[in-house]
Specification:
about 775 residues; six-stranded mixed barrel
């Protein structure tokens, strides 16, 4: 077998260019698999370990105010293991170095952190001293964004009074791995929202909650029925203004991190499969040509006593050797990319330890898949080589049976001789041309989809922050206030106009289905907050009934004209039946709207409001921020510009790595396929090209003939690649429909332009490499007669 091993090395050196192309494509697939699968496993392992070690609760509930004895009743519910009542309140913060008012979520945390639910992981400093009124532990994301250190002070408006809080520790919580406020906010703004933990005694005293709580976290026993526990908690806490208990799956941080883990799992299967499929096509084309050129060598090998099995094993080893190089390179690239991806995830998801540690099994499966790809691609030519009789192999390969082409049958006149040769050669080898077109189509599809995702996100931003939200600032009060407070807001410095709104938590029911959301009351002639669908059309506020988002209507299985039961989850908890007047296909949230006076009548209250939308003079915004920081009635201030900036920053940081990586991988596919096709054509037609040179064709002309075939294949693949990219974008848009957001199907011309540029760059690079080979074409040797 040493003879075959030496032959293998010589063959590998002879087709090194094509081998490198195959190696790079295989490396892309392996790198994608290792990176994404390892990241999926790392996130899953980190999440499970963090939840277990720091006792992340299973069920949560927020309410108005309940006595401690209500917690004792929850402890008696079958299946409940541990109950932790607490006090939670959002307050306005004055953070050093931050002009805008920030929102702080104050949470009571027992001094016995070691046994508490949602326990803190202390990064620096210490926990709060018992009964310490002015000490707080800050969340790491908030502290890092605002450069807070141990000993830094923050001012908070608690129950209308300024209180100075000293940061004594910086910590993480399993409840806020993804630290966002919730509600309409889907992206982190760590500068303007943070979590602060305080001692229960201090927070209860400051908020007048002695012996009471307004939030509860519950852990369950193994095999407990979560739905039954939630139902029991609702019955116990209903009289205390409970907004409805919910399980871990509906907890906002857990939902985001779990969705991300699921997406990584899906991506780890789809993306590597695309690259490895293209690699299998490359292996098949290359080995088909190698076996065809080595017919006489196969005959000699068999004549010297080597069996068909040994010949087959030789070519399988050949393919596995190339695949092994791609596998090793892919593992290294995947490891490096995984480390970069882990750093990116660490910026968004706060784990105590998030280490990218690929498991050995992942490399094993990557190797197994890689070997399967190589064998599958080389299977047909290997079987052909093994079955070829020595006597038959000694004869030259039978010439192709040339038939009239389409040009001949339809008598199409093409003046250019070079173009006629290109078209005829492509038609006589249609499967090879289609395989090349498929690979190039795949590369184009990847780029279109990636840029299409950015187009969809830009569309969401336009709809949400330009068309729907036309205010500059949204001010929310700590409780419903009389409409007269709107006049006070209108007289604040820099305020140009204001519009009131009323926001109330509700549970909507239709038949046996229900969904908890908020009912937003807007002025009928509102100009700052509009209802805009995904096509940019405005929906008008009806005088009677409610307007539901399309997603909410689908969850309830309700259509316009039918009535839904509206259960108010605050105050007297009234229940009313309202008709569904219209639907609006919004990209974000499961929203419900009603005319403001109608909502006030529904609540049996005067013209109370929950807050106001403000348009402000940009030059006077700093003065307005200072004024809003001092208003005790203000619970939070949302600034549209900072929200937009946070959105863009999140998208830019999260998409930059994946976008750049996949574009490079797509370029490798396109370049590898074009180069491979041109090299195979050059090896097959070297005699023809040399003959043309002797007949007077210039080197540029024969280069254009050879590369022109690849250009025709590329041009043929472009429209199909564009169509495939659009189709996959449509599929992803449909699959990414969640309660939180809907991805509109938007693929702008610039996305197709980027795909075109990628293909042109890859073609130019491959053409340059093949052109150098043609420049060194030995016309004397290729014109020698074969024995």
């Amino acid at each position: 077998m040493a003879v075959l091993q030496r032959k293998l090395v010589r063959d590998l050196l002879h087709i090194r260019g094509q081998a490198i192309a195959i190696i790079l494509v295989i490396a892309c697939g392996v790198a994608a698999f290792v990176t994404m699968r390892s990241m999926y496993r790392s996130l899953l392992r980190s999440q499970a370990d963090y939840y277990a070690r720091y006792r992340f609760a299973d069920v949560f509930a927020e309410l108005k105010r309940a006595p401690e004895r209500a917690a004792d009743r929850i402890r008696e519910v079958p299946g409940v293991a541990r109950v932790q009542p607490r006090v939670v309140m959002d307050v306005t913060l004055n953070v050093p170095g931050l002009d805008e008012p920030a929102v702080g979520r104050l949470i009571s945390m027992p001094a016995e952190n070691s046994g508490a639910l949602n326990a803190l992981f202390l990064r620096r400093g210490r926990f709060i001293e018992p009964h310490a009124a002015n000490e707080a532990v800050a969340s790491e994301a908030f502290a890092s964004a605002n450069h807070l250190q141990l000993g830094s002070t923050i001012q908070a408006i608690i129950q209308g009074r300024w209180q100075r809080l000293t940061v004594v520790g910086i910590a993480l919580s399993p409840e806020y791995i993804y630290e966002i406020r919730g509600g309409a906010s889907l992206f982190p703004d760590n500068r303007r929202f943070g979590v602060l933990w305080m001692s229960p005694e201090a927070l209860q005293s400051a908020l007048d909650m002695k012996g009471a709580f307004n939030s509860v976290a519950v852990s369950l026993r193994p095999h407990a029925n979560e739905l039954e526990v939630i139902a029991s908690m609702d019955r116990i806490l209903d009289r205390y203004g409970c907004l409805g208990a919910y399980g871990r799956e509906d907890q906002i941080s857990h939902r985001f991190i779990s969705d991300e883990i699921s997406q990584n799992r899906i991506s780890a299967m789809i993306i590597p499969a695309i690259f490895l499929l293209v690699a299998a096509v490359l292996v098949h084309l290359s080995f088909t040509r190698v076996v065809s050129m080595q017919r006489s060598e196969i005959a000699v090998i068999k004549a010297f006593g080597f069996t068909s099995g040994q010949v087959a094993a030789h070519y399988v080893q050949f393919s596995l050797l190339i695949a092994s190089a791609g596998y090793l390179l892919g593992c290294v690239v995947g490891w490096v990319f995984g480390i970069r991806l882990a750093r990116l995830y660490a910026e968004f998801y706060r784990f105590p330890i998030l280490i990218y540690r690929p498991e050995v099994s992942i490399f094993f499966w990557a190797g197994l898949i890689c070997a399967g790809t190589a064998i599958a691609g080389a299977l047909v030519p290997v079987l052909y080589a093994a079955a070829l009789p020595p006597a038959e192999a000694m004869r030259p390969e039978s010439p192709q049976q040339f038939r009239p082409t389409l040009l001949d049958r339809f008598n199409l006149r093409v003046r250019s001789a070079a173009l006629r040769m290109m078209l005829r050669n492509l038609e006589r080898r249609p499967w090879r041309a289609l395989a090349s077109a498929f690979a190039i189509c795949t590369a184009i599809m990847i780029v279109v989809v990636e840029f299409g995702m950015l187009d969809s996100l830009d569309r969401i931003m336009d709809l949400q922050f330009r068309d729907t939200q036309r205010e500059d600032i949204t001010v929310t009060f700590n409780e419903a206030r009389s409409a007269g407070i709107r006049q006070e807001l209108a007289h604040l410095p820099g305020v140009i106009a204001s519009e009131p709104f009323r926001d109330v938590p509700v549970r909507l029911r239709f038949q046996h289905r229900s969904h908890k959301t908020s009912l937003l009351g807007l002025s009928r002639d509102s100009r700052m907050r509009l209802m805009i669908d995904q096509q940019g059309r405005r929906a008008l506020m009806p005088p009677d009934g409610v307007v539901l988002s399309t997603t909410l209507a689908e969850l309830l299985h309700v259509v316009p004209g039918e009535s839904v039961q509206v259960e108010i989850l605050e105050g007297r908890r009234l229940v009313r039946s309202l008709p569904v007047a219209a639907l609006v296909d919004e990209p974000l949230g499961t929203n419900a709207y009603i005319e403001l006076p109608a909502l006030n009548r529904l609540l049996q209250e005067g013209g109370s409001i929950s807050g106001a939308f403000l348009q402000v003079d940009a030059a006077k915004q700093p003065l307005l921020y200072q004024s809003l920081k001092t208003l005790p009635a203000v619970a939070s201030v949302a600034i549209k510009k900072t929200t937009v900036d946070s959105f863009r920053d999140t998208i830019n940081r999260s998409m930059a790595l994946s976008l750049g990586t996949l574009i490079i991988f797509a370029a490798i596919i396109a370049a590898g396929m074009i180069y491979n096709g041109a090299r195979i054509a050059l090896s097959e037609r070297a005699r023809e090209l040399a003959t043309l040179r002797i007949l007077g064709f210039t080197r540029q002309e024969i280069t254009s003939i050879l590369l022109g075939e690849q250009a025709v294949i590329t041009l043929f693949a472009l429209p199909f690649g564009f169509a495939a990219g659009y189709g996959l974008s449509a599929l992803l848009a449909a699959r990414l429909q969640t309660e939180l957001y809907r991805m509109p199907l938007v693929v702008r011309p610039t996305s197709y332009a980027w795909a075109l540029l990628m293909v042109l760059f890859s073609a130019a690079l491959s053409g340059n490499l093949v052109g150098r080979r043609i420049a060194h074409l030995d016309m004397i040797s290729v014109l020698k007669s074969r024995e």
